[in-house]
Design a protein that fits this description.
With about 300 residues, the chain is α+β, with helices and mostly antiparallel strands. Helix content is about 25%, strand content about 20%.
Length: about 300
């Protein structure tokens, strides 16, 4: 394997192409997706404006307990990674938008309103992009479920979905930086589907199926890089691969990327939808899993010490 495959969403045989690509590689470029290039560019434009703000301004919308807002440079660490010994924080900063809820529901983990910086066209651009991506992701999820032969009603666990739109900024890393310093440490995504839009700066690497090498995934302005996460891997009883990947930005340039994550509702029970006679995974509630992951990786989610008994 020297490159990830290219799939076309308009292909009449897309179900077959999907299961072939994601049972072997777990990553693919997707063209024919229908997202307006101008909207995508507008997203990168407002992201660059936001990340250029002084830290004091960005921290006015610092990430909250509902995981919305600004995540500062080097403030998250992939401590749960089984792919590398990770002791250093990721060399990136980001802004996180999730589903917009008018109020926080105590019974729904991570529900609540988003935080918005004082940047012209920022909220409008993110909301329009998020809406378009939800439509695309729903279409893709239905393809994935059909491709593995899951029951039609399985799509209901994505009603409504848990969505994350993240505006990432990776500064250039020195060529002499240590081997265990990453823009994003080796990891698998914990959700269902990830749709990555990037600028023209490289840095993303994907592990080959045999686990021996890392290959570069060059940027493509006409495509999304789409990968399967751990929850869809579980739902497919291991049939679809959740592939390790990482970011190392030694290009000498600033790198910006905008991943969109499409996941089940937090109340959904994740268990194999196929192979019921030989399930490879025990059932789990997605929200319970999320809480463990976020509390381990982000300071904003650490349990308050004075509340522990």
């Amino acid at each position: 394997m020297t490159a990830i495959p290219v799939l076309d969403l308009t292909d009449r045989n897309i179900d077959r192409a999907f299961v072939k690509a994601y049972s072997n590689v777990g990553f693919a470029y997707f063209v024919g997706h229908g997202i307006c290039p101008k909207l995508r560019q507008s997203l990168f434009d407002v992201s660059k404006v936001f990340h250029a703000l002084p830290e004091s301004e960005k921290n006015k919308v610092a990430v909250d307990r509902n995981h919305r807002g600004y995540i500062g440079m080097a403030s998250s660490t992939d401590v749960n990674s089984t792919l590398a010994e990770v002791n250093k924080p990721n060399q990136s900063a980001s802004f996180m938008m999730m589903r917009e809820d008018a109020i926080a529901d105590r019974d729904v983990y991570l529900s609540g309103p988003n935080q918005w910086p004082d940047v012209a066209q920022f909220r409008d651009t993110l909301e329009r992009y998020n809406q378009e991506m939800c439509v695309l992701a729903d279409k893709m999820m239905r393809i994935a479920l059909r491709a593995i032969g899951a029951p039609v009603e399985a799509i209901e666990m994505f009603t409504p979905p848990t969505t994350w739109l993240r505006l990432l900024h990776y500064p250039p890393m020195p060529h002499a930086s240590p081997d265990d310093l990453y823009g994003s440490a080796p990891h698998t995504d914990f959700g269902a589907l990830t749709f990555l839009a990037t600028d023209d700066v490289g840095g993303l690497q994907v592990q080959t199926p045999d686990g021996r090498e890392w290959i570069d995934v060059p940027p493509r302005q006409d495509a999304f890089v789409v990968n399967v996460g751990d929850m869809l891997h579980r739902l497919s009883n291991g049939a679809l691969r959740s592939t390790p990947h990482r970011v190392i930005n030694k290009t000498g340039r600033e790198r910006y990327s905008c991943p969109f994550f499409y996941d089940p509702h937090v109340s959904a029970t994740i268990k194999p939808l196929i192979g019921a006679q030989t399930p490879a995974f025990e059932p789990m509630v997605f929200g319970h899993f999320l809480r463990r992951e976020l509390e381990a990786s982000y300071d904003a989610h650490k349990p308050d010490m004075d509340q522990k008994t």
